[in-house]
Amino acid sequence: MAVVASAPGKVLLTGGYLILERPNAGLVLSTNARFYAIVKPLHEHAEPESGGGEWVDVKLTSPQLSRESLYRLSLENFTVQCVSSSESRNPFVEHAVQYSLAATHGIFDNNKKDSLHRLLLQGLDITILGCNDFYSYRNQIEARGLPLTPESLISFPPFASISFNAEESNSENCKPEVAKTGLGSSAAMTTSVVAALLNYFGVVNLSSSKGQDKENKIKDLDMVHVIAQTAHCIAQGKVGSGFDVSSAVYGSQRYVRFSPDVLAPAQAAVKGPLEEVIVNILKGNWDHERTEFSLPPLMNLLLGEPGAGGSSTPSMVGAVKKWQKSDPQKSQETWNKLSEANLDLENQLNLLRKLAAEHWDVYKCIISKCSTLRSKKWMEQATEPSQQTIVKALLGARDAMLEIRSNMRQMGEAAGVPIEPKSQSEVLDATMELEGVLLGGVPGAGGFDAVFAITLGDSCSSHVINSWTSLNVLPLLLKEDPDGVALQTADPRTNNIASSV
Hints:
The chain folds into 2 domains: 3-135 and 180-293, 2-Layer Sandwich (Ribosomal Protein S5, domain 2); 299-476, Alpha-Beta Plaits.
C-alpha cells in the first residue's frame, strides 16, 4: 500500500536575516505549491534475508530530473550505500531516510521492530515530485516564444521535466544546478519524505479524519518536524533558522527559531550510533516558537520571477554577518529599526484579521472599494469611524513595508550584497503604485530570486500580472495555503494536481 505525503513551499514575508537569531520573529506563508513523496514496497514479496537481513533495498526516483538511484540501507547502523545512480546523489532524501528509520527503530518495542523488519524486507520505493512553481521554466517559455504570463506556465504539464541552468551544465566537472524560484524546495522535499516514511512505518498518523485527537495530531507533527529539521540541517551542512521546514510541517505561521545547540549531537555523530542520537534529539529542548498566522481575509499573495538569475542565500547571509562584526554599532541600529518595522507590519496585519472577524460587512465593503483604487485614494472611501480604522491599518501596513524595504536596502548596501537590487526596487515601486496593491517586497534574504505582492481582493491581481509581464517579470501560479504537511489519497500525477488549482 502506497503512502503519499505532501508539504508546502514557503514565502518569508518578514524576518529576512533577523530570523537567524533568537528571539527575532519572522512571518512565513505556506503556499499551494507542494512537494510530494510516494513511499511503497519495492518488491512484491519480502526478499530472502541476505547477510542476516541487515540490508534494505531502497530505490529513489525523481521523474522530473529523469533520475533513479539505488541504495542499500543498513539496519545495523542506518548507513546508506549508493549502489547505482543515474546522476548526482540527493543528500536531503538520504538523510530523511536514515533519520526516519533510526527514530522508528529507537521508539518501537521488540514486537513493533519485528513488524517493521518484515515490512522492510520488501524494500522501499520512494518517488519525489515537486509542483512546477518550485522551478524556473522561464528559459523554456522564452525558447518557445511565449509571453511571460501565467497562461504560458499553465501550458506546461504538471510536474514537468526540469531543465538545467545552461551555464552550469557546460562544464563536465560542474554539477548541474536546477533553476529554482526560492520556495524552499529542499525543506518541502525533506519534510514530505519524512512524513511519508513515518506514516508508512506506522510511527505517526497524519490522516485528516475528523475524529482524530488534536493533541495526538500535534504530537505526530512535532515528530515529523524534529526529524525533518535534523535531516535537513545535516544535509545542508549547517544549522539554519529552520523556518522553511517549520512552515512545510505546520503551514503559515509566526516563527522564532530553535536554539542551534539542540542539534549538536547530530553534528557530532558522524560516526556515532544514529539511533541513540536521534532519540536524544527527539527528547531535546526544542524551544522554537510557532504562532498561528495567515493573511487577513480577501487578500492574495502573488509571486513573480524576475529572471535575473537566482541569488545564493548562504553567501548573502555570510556578507551580512561579516558587516555586523566590522561595524557593530551601525549594524545594530539598522537591525533594531528593521525589527521594529517587522513588528509593526505584523501588528497591522493581525489588527486587520481582528477587524475582519468583528466587522465583516464593513471590512468586506472597504476592501472591495480599495481594491479598485490606488492607496492615495483609500482614506476618501472611509466615511465612518469603523471604516477609517480599517483603512488606517491598511495604510499602516504599507508604511511598515516601505520602512522594511528601506532598512533592507541599507543593510545590503553596507554589506555589499544586493538584498533589494535596483532592478527589484523599480519593479516593487511600480507594483505598489497599482490599484488595490497593499504590499510589495523581496521575500526572505532578498536578491534576484523573486518579488512578492499582497493585493486586496481578486479584481486587482490582473493589473499586477500585466504590469509584471511588461516589466519582464514572470508571474507564478501559486497562492497562499495556510495548511502544512498532509497525506494525499493518491499519486498526484493521476489526479492532475497543478499549482494553479
